[in-house]
Write a structure and sequence with these properties.
Largest sheet: none
Distance between the termini: 57 Å
Strand content: under 5%
Oligomer: single chain
Structural class: mainly alpha
Length: 96
């Protein structure tokens, strides 16, 4: 993109201050664009609450491992986008 926009000017060195500043401007612009579009940039992973819950019910290490695996698998699908109630129903058999 640089070559197309700045024809005839040399490409900045990879370790140069100019290239660093350009990259920072791009990153800041991307973040502003995502925030403007309403994209949520903060992610709360479910692992800490999971371990706290397993500990609160005095669950075994095996239960924690199965639940951890379930969360890992579900995050690779659209399950994490479904209603919380549906997830609670799915998880109840695991805690029994």
């Amino acid at each position: 993109a640089y070559k197309a926009q700045y024809k005839g000017t040399p490409v900045p060195e990879t370790e140069s201050r100019e290239l660093y500043e350009r990259k920072e401007k791009v990153l800041i612009s991307e973040r502003i664009l995502l925030q403007t579009l309403g994209f949520d940039l903060s992610i709360e992973h479910p692992y800490r609450p999971l371990l706290a819950y397993v500990k609160s019910i005095m669950g075994t290490r095996d239960l924690a491992q199965v639940a951890w695996n379930f969360i890992n698998d579900s995050l690779r699908t659209t399950v994490c986008l479904q209603a919380a109630e549906a997830l609670q129903k799915l998880c109840r058999p695991l805690s029994a």
